[in-house]
Amino acid sequence: MKKVFERPRSLRNVPTHYCAGCGHSLAHRLICEVIDELGIREDTIAVCPVGCAVIAYEYWDFDCSEAAHGRTPCVATGIKRVHPDKIVFSYQGDGDLAAIGTAEIIHTANRGENITVIFINNGVYGMTNGQMAPTTLIGQRTSTTPQGRDVLRDGYPLKITELLAQLPGSRYVERVSVDTPSNVIKAKAAIKKAFRNQIEKKGFSLVEVLSPCPTYWGLSPKDACLRISGEMVKDFPLGVIKDA
Amino acid sequence: MAKIMMCGNEVIGEAAVHAGCTFYSGYPITPQNELTQYMASRMTESGGTFIQAESELAAINMVFGAAAAGARAMTSSSSPGISLKQEGISYLAACQLPAVIVNMMRGGPGLGNIAPSQADYFQATRGGGHGDYRTIVLAPSAVEEAWHLTHLAFDLADEYRNPVLILGDGILGQMMEPIEVVRKHLHGKMANHDMRHKPWALTGCKGRKPNVIRSLYLGEGELEELNRLLQMKYSMVKSKEVRFESLYTEDSDLVVVAYGTTSRIVRSAISKARQERLHVGMLRPVTLWPFPEAELQKLANKARAFLVVEMSAGQMVDDVKLSVLGKKPIHFYGRAGGGIPTEAALLDIIRDILRPRSRNRVRV
User: Fold this and answer.
1) Which of A57, A62, A65 is closest, CB to CB, to B65?
2) What are the distances in angstroms from CA B361 to CA A218, B254, B321, B346, B351?
3) Are the Cβ atoms of A74 and B58 closer than 8 angstroms?
4) pLDDT tens, position by position, A187-233
């Protein structure tokens, strides 16, 4: 019988700690599928973030480093400059990339660093109990916006990916989602393109992945996916933002 | 080989290149800018990497990445910038990554001024960042010594897989002195910086199991075990890597303890004092951590008193007290906020301690 589906070689055969319906597991898997398909597992070095995906290296079967809060792109830069022919990617959440590490991601993109960044945006700080993220939607209730995000008090959702697309150093920037099967397929294609860009030495590529957090959105896994297509994409529209 | 004139900052840069440093990232701050600028040209010439980072945080974390990837990596800064680098230094120590960090100290606290100071002693020798960790701290007192200690810093960093600090000040960084450029490593164990000797480094997992660089340990007792191993390593460093210089300590009634630039002023004050037949000598710690405790304990059996001289309000004096353990009186003289002790002032204090007659003196 022909095998049509299997665990990617790059993904370890272990259960993850992620909540039911969390998008990290999907994103991890997509990255591993892409790495396998490109045949780069033995040449790949990942930089894992803080937050829920802090132990991504427990699931990925290739070289990995941790990084301090938000400094992920700097660690990736250091590794990439030492090994320009290896494939280096950073995996960051919205707190890591769009709050504490805003300066680092902007300057890394603007240097045109030839790395790949996978940016998981679930609009909330999952690891620390669901506080507001820079990407939290207006009116969204979190543990630090109990009445909903208020523009006057909390400011606006930060469209960091659009901001990064403005920089001459960024080569390819796309926003995808893992809320439906067809979007998962598109997400994988974007991730693959971001890795291929690096192999072809085209420069900085970033894929933002809208990702459900059922636990801190207070929704079932299914309703969390519906929230992405119903609410989140209004502020964070899907598609290629820049492909220079 | 001919002697050349260079300032301390540039000499550290050149020594780093000789020692096999292939990665430097930094951020400008006075009085260490000559080092960043020197690395900008030398890294390019030697095929290494130079990055002017957007901040000290970025610079130290780029060094973290480069060290994790197996390179000999260095960054440099001055006091306020080193405060920002403490986050990364704690991570380097926790992940057991080798890196060299240069601090050309200036007056503090806060923005302070750009005059020379030694007020980061606590920060350098006590860890500085969060958690239980230590960094090896080397304190050159002359440009030529900075050359040797920079080589040593890279070797010690690799040998112990630990960050090593070179602690100087604005005088050392900017002063020019002739040095002889010797193209060899002075540390006996030689450079271990070839990546083949770093099986833990991130190089892609071809032909081996994946490597993970991390300091996160969530399982019961796992982090305590890491801390236990780190402390064992620090004990080994303490037993093997203490370095100091003694001057006239065999017959000294008074032993002056000073390091770095200050020790040079002390040295000339002592030579004047010796002409007056005052029995005074100096112990100069070259490693501030590990501190030459045992040597001071020995001296405490012979000398009548100690005098600690620092360009701070009194930081190393704590280590001298811990070493002397109350056996002998300890005097302190310090200048803070960028003030520099003068030879005349030191001579007065030395006379005053050894021929007690008149003024009150600072005794701690």
Assistant:
1) A65
2) 69, 15, 18, 12, 11
3) yes
4) 999 999 999 999 999 999 999 999 999 999 999 999 999 999 999 99
Tell whether the model's pLDDT for residue A77 goes beyond 50: yes
CA dist B140 and A178 (Å) reads: 56
Determine contact, residues A38/A195, Cβ cutoff 8 Å: yes
Q: Which chain B residues are within 8 Å of A75, Cβ to Cβ? A: 61-62, 64-65, 68
Measure the CA angle with vertex A10, ends A7 and A11; round to 5°. Answer: 55
More confident residue, B355 or A9: A9
- Residue at token pair 């529209």: A237
- Candidates A122, A84, A76; CA nearest to A101 is A76
Q: How far apart are CA B133 and CA B135, in angstroms?
A: 7
Q: Do A63 and B210 touch (CB under 8 A)?
A: yes
Nearest CA in chain B to A77: B62
- Could you tell me the end-to-end alpha-carbon distance of chain A, in angstroms, rounded to an integer? 44
Nearest CB neighbour to A63, from listed B49, B204, B215: B204
Q: In this complex, is the C-beta atom of B62 within 8 Å of any C-beta atom belonging to chain A?
A: yes
ipTM over 0.95: yes
Q: Can you list the positions of beta strands (E) in B111-252? A: 136-138, 163-169, 176-180, 212-213, 244-247
- Secondary structure (3-state) at A243: strand
Beta bridge partners, A207, equal: A118, A174
pLDDT exceeds 90 at position B187: no
| B46 shares contact with chain A (CB less than 8 Å) | no
Phi-psi region of A182 (alpha: psi -120 to 50; beta: other; left: phi over 0): alpha
CA distance between the termini of chain B:
47
Nearest CA in chain A to B208: A42
- In sequence order, the 6+-apart residues with CB closer than 8 A to the CB of B356 are none
Q: Which of A54, A60, A76 sits opposite B65 (nearest CB)?
A: A76
pLDDT digits (tens, 9 = 90+) for B166-186: 999 999 999 999 998 765 544
H runs (alpha helix) in B138-183: 143-160, 170-174
B101 beta partners: B75, B165
Closest CA to A242 of A207, A211, A210: A207
Query: Which residues of chain B make contact with A32, given a CB cutoff of 8 A?
Result: none
Query: CB A81 to CB B210 under 8 A?
Result: no
The yes-or-no verdict on residue B364 having pLDDT over 90 is no
Of B87, B203, B214, the CB nearest to A66: B214
Chain A contact set for B64 (CB, 8 A) = 65, 67-68, 71, 74-75, 78
Cβ within 8 Å of residue A23, ≥6 positions away: A120, A122, A178, A209, A210, A211, A212, A213
Q: Chain A residues with CB inside 8 Å of B91's CB?
A: 66, 68
β B280-285/B244-247 pair status = antiparallel
Look at the alpha carbons of B89, B92, B93, B99 in this order and tell me if their dihedral is positive or negative.
Answer: negative
A81 in Cβ contact with B63 (< 8 Å): no
Can you tell me whether residue B105 is helix, strand or coil?
strand
